[in-house]
UniProtKB/TrEMBL annotation:
Keywords: Aminotransferase, Pyridoxal phosphate, Transferase. It comes from Candidatus Seongchinamella marina. The keyword Transferase applies. This is Aminotransferase class I/II-fold pyridoxal phosphate-dependent enzyme. InterPro entries: Aminotransferase_I/II_large (IPR004839), Kynurenine-oxoglutarate_AT (IPR051326), PyrdxlP-dep_Trfase (IPR015424), PyrdxlP-dep_Trfase_major (IPR015421), PyrdxlP-dep_Trfase_small (IPR015422). Residues 25-376 form the Aminotransferase class I/classII large domain. Coiled coil: none annotated. Its cofactor is pyridoxal 5'-phosphate. GO terms for molecular function: transaminase activity. SUPFAM superfamilies: PLP-dependent transferases.
Length: 379
């Protein structure tokens, strides 16, 4: 059988988590919290199940949840969205991104991605029959060179995929970045697939800038969000996509044949929780910044170069003063020898540059972060 994705194997996240388990190592590789979600949310899920919310929801998502999401967008982004025609609940942002790409691009099209980029983007682009065009972020700052992006646009360019706060680097878009993006997509009549799953995890007084807040971007964008990241329930695999009515209609045509619906009791639980505590997402930045600061401060005596993450729950560490080994080899060696697992960022590039970074997840207990930092300081 001829593979449609001949270059795709097991993801780095699966491999490193398996290696961490095999070596009984501290797993700071895969991005999931090692602490519980809010008790009220967990109780809401149990209640939803026991109250009988266990059959198919409407394809676009439970109306009660879409109404709450419209309120969230008004509260946190200052935008009004129609819950019936612009919000679609999906079984995870990855599925939403896949459906957006499949609905929008086809054979012969090109889609610009910014390297390092999350590993689900290019496979979806290839399966749609299009080609991914890679534009590297600036070294070390991981900012977008919008002139380089403009230079990569051709008559075949159909879409650009953006991600802020950015996985794996923790970089965040500024207002000027969104203005530059807006100018390009207007000039070249492009669509945007915006991965904003870490929207509430932005630090040091920064604000998250969503494509939904810029009218000329909103009219041509799919914006993707994740309950897993916001509520520390990555295993619930539920999120949502916001897009204008015409794009939403096309996304739903694909979504109905990929998963049809997201999990009903999870939807009901999130709707009930948000109705009771609509400001909960606003508490996350301080919570995670404290963890970031704990981890970075504990590494202050190490030989790593540490530039505090601007967003997400990932921290890059520059190990260039410690080793010349490739990042993928070093992270495996340290998992086996030191008992601490991380992620190499070279795997997120089409053509990795000469740099020495490993990604560590700080969505972990303070005890684990302090213990991990102690090990790293001894290198």
């Amino acid at each position: 059988m001829r593979s449609k994705l001949p270059d795709v194997g097991t993801t780095i996240f699966t491999r490193m988590s398996a290696l961490a388990k095999e070596c009984d190592a501290m797993n700071l590789s895969q991005g999931y919290p090692d602490f519980e979600a809010p008790q009220a949310l967990r109780e809401a899920l149990a209640k939803a199940v026991m109250d009988g919310h266990n059959q198919y929801a409407p394809m676009a998502g439970l109306p009660a949840l879409r109404d709450q999401l419209a309120e969230q967008l008004k509260i946190h982004r200052g935008v009004d969205c129609n819950p019936d025609t612009e919000i679609t609940v999906v079984p995870g942002a990855t599925e939403g991104i896949f459906c957006a790409i499949m609905a929008s691009v086809g054979h012969g099209d090109e889609v610009i991605v910014l390297d390092p980029c999350y590993d689900s983007y290019e496979p979806a682009i290839k399966l749609a029959g299009a080609a991914a065009v890679h534009v590297a972020l600036e070294a070390h700052s991981f900012r977008v060179d919008w002139n380089a992006v403009a230079g990569a646009i051709t008559p075949r360019t159909r879409m650009i995929v953006v991600n802020s706060p950015h996985n794996p680097t923790g970089a965040t878009f500024s207002h000027d970045d969104l203005i530059s993006l807006q100018q390009l997509v207007q000039q070249h009549d492009l669509l945007v697939c915006s991965d904003e799953v870490y929207e509430h995890l932005v630090y040091d007084g920064r604000q998250h800038h969503s494509v939904l807040q810029y009218p000329q971007l909103r009219e041509r964008s799919f914006a993707h969000f994740s309950f897993g990241k916001t509520f520390s329930v990555t295993g619930w695999k539920t999120g949502y996509c916001v897009a204008p009515p015409a794009l939403t209609a096309e996304l739903r045509k694909v979504h109905q044949f990929v998963a049809f619906v997201a999990v009903t009791p999870v939807q009901q639980a999130v709707a009930d929780f948000l109705a009771t505590d609509p400001q909960y997402p606003a508490t996350l930045a301080n919570f995670y910044q404290q963890k970031r600061d704990l981890f970075c401060h504990a590494l202050s005596s190490s030989r790593f170069r540490v530039s505090a993450s601007g967003g997400t729950y990932f921290q890059l560490l520059d190990y260039s003063e410690l080793s010349d080994l490739p990042d993928h080899q070093l992270c495996e060696d340290w998992t086996r020898k030191l008992g601490i697992a991380s992620i190499p960022i070279s795997v997120f590039y089409d053509s990795p540059p000469q740099q020495h970074y490993l990604r560590f997840c700080f969505a972990k207990s303070d005890t684990m972060l302090a213990k991990a930092a102690e090990v790293l300081c001894k290198i």
